[in-house]
């Protein structure tokens, strides 16, 4: 039987999870405590069993670590997870953490492709025309650095560098 705990409190650095018997009975569960063990029932069906250790009752529950399942297109998961690699999205799909079909690695995300583009470096030996064009107002680029950022990004970066083309107001982070 599956159950959902609501309004649970988190105690940092606590090595065990706490279960409130009074909160469970308020939700309609029944608890029978014997000398060395206990049973928790929901709608008359066994929900959990436990054993006594000193003055505490320890519930015998199976720890499950799973993601909330949300239907969504694979490309949407790629964007939701901060444009992680498609192999990472495919790994999450195979592990059952998210629903969907595996993504074809040959698919290209426009934003990822744009962010990975590099511009040809400026060669000072180029003609005077290129030098004049680089001084035009629409080629003025301003940059700014933000950091140290906490928490660090998934890749461990702690700084953000922004570029802005002044005339077009085009920004890139």
TrEMBL record:
InterPro entries tied to this protein:
GAG-pre-integrase_dom, Retrotran_Ty1/copia-like
Q: Where are the transmembrane segments?
A: none
Specify the domain of life of the species encoding this protein: Eukaryota
| Pfam families from the UniProt entry | gag_pre-integrs (PF13976)
The GAG-pre-integrase domain covers which part of the protein?
73-117
* Name under which the protein is recorded: GAG-pre-integrase domain-containing protein
Per the UniProt record, the source organism is Peronospora matthiolae
């Amino acid at each position: 039987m599956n159950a959902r705990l609501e309004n649970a409190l988190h105690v940092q650095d606590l090595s065990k999870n706490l279960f409130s018997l009074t909160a469970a009975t308020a939700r309609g569960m029944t608890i029978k405590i014997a000398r060395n063990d206990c049973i928790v029932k929901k709608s008359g069906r066994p929900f959990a069993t436990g054993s006594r250790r000193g003055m505490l009752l320890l519930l015998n529950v199976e720890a499950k670590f799973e993601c909330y399942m949300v239907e969504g297109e694979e490309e949407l998961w790629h964007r939701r997870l901060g444009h992680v690699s498609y192999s990472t999205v495919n790994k999450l799909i195979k592990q059952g953490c998210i629903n969907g079909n595996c993504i074809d690695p040959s698919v290209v995300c426009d934003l990822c492709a744009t962010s990975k583009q590099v511009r040809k470096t400026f060669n000072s030996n180029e003609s005077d025309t290129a030098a004049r064009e680089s001084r035009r107002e629409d080629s003025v680029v301003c940059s700014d650095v933000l950091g140290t950022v906490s928490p660090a990004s998934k890749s461990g970066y702690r700084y953000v560098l922004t570029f802005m083309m002044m005339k077009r107001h085009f920004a890139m982070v």
